[in-house]
Amino acid sequence: MDVCERAKKIAAQLQKEAGMPRVGFILGSGWGDAAHLDGERAVAFSSLEGMPACTVAGHAGNFLFGKAGGNSAVISQGRLHLYEGHAAATAVLPVAVLYELGVRTVVLTNAAGGIDPAMQPSELMLLRDHINLTGQNPLVGRAGSQIFADMTQLYDAELRQTVASACRALSIPCREGVYIQVTGPSYETPAEIRAFRAMGADAVGMSTAIEAVFARYLGMRVAGISCITNMAAGVSDEKLDHADVLAQSKRNRRAIGALVRELVRVL
Ligand code: HPA
What we know:
Layout (H helix, E strand, L loop, with lengths): L2 H16 L4 E5 L10 E7 L17 E7 L2 E7 L10 H4 L1 H8 L4 E10 L9 E9 L24 H13 L4 E8 L8 H10 L3 E3 L3 H9 L3 E11 L10 H10 L1 H14 L1
Parallel strand pairs: 1-4, 1-5, 5-9, 6-7, 7-8
Antiparallel strand pairs: 2-3, 3-4, 5-8, 6-9
This protein binds hypoxanthine.
Hypoxanthine binds next to strand 5, strand 8 and strand 9.
């Protein structure tokens, strides 16, 4: 079944919890359980017909509904990754569900490895642009001329300003940069990271770019935020480990949780 049809059926099951969310989030590794909303209600992916389960540690696999500053939001706590075996057109299902719930501004978050040596673990990077190195595009196989979607200003400049000033207000260090999406699940080699740096990437991760493409295709305003959890392979001497990535995100819990609430309030 087409991902939009599938999303409609899932959204219909969520309608009684949903209210009218103005803004939606996809919260990645370590972000998901950091954010809490007023009067929150969680619906497990596993309780929804047609919704695949989340198989990755650090991804709860819930849609969370609630408010901050009086504004309604929906948070996807967890996402579907290519490396779990999902096709790109399936991996964007949470984005399509948010769209069907009425969300027109979406904030995509992830954990990422810092390629630019000036970056520090625990910093946030606001996505100015991305490089999709997965070789996959979620629009493949869809009909209609909208599939030739313009990506020249994929990450909304005004939203970026809003996120940057929210970070400033909360004293959260953040900078802008270019994110490169790979499929994973293995981490990169130092030679790959050197190549990505030469290509213009500042941070690397295993999600987000294909979701951003789909959100833009649907006509949503898109923001992307990476939490730099480690320096990418070869940038420091550290070995890479998913448990360390989650541990670093956990250290950022309070900042991340405060940022999500602030964004619900102001967006
Ligand atoms: N590489 C790819 N994905 C990641 C990394 C990394 O170094 N850190 C967190 N997600």
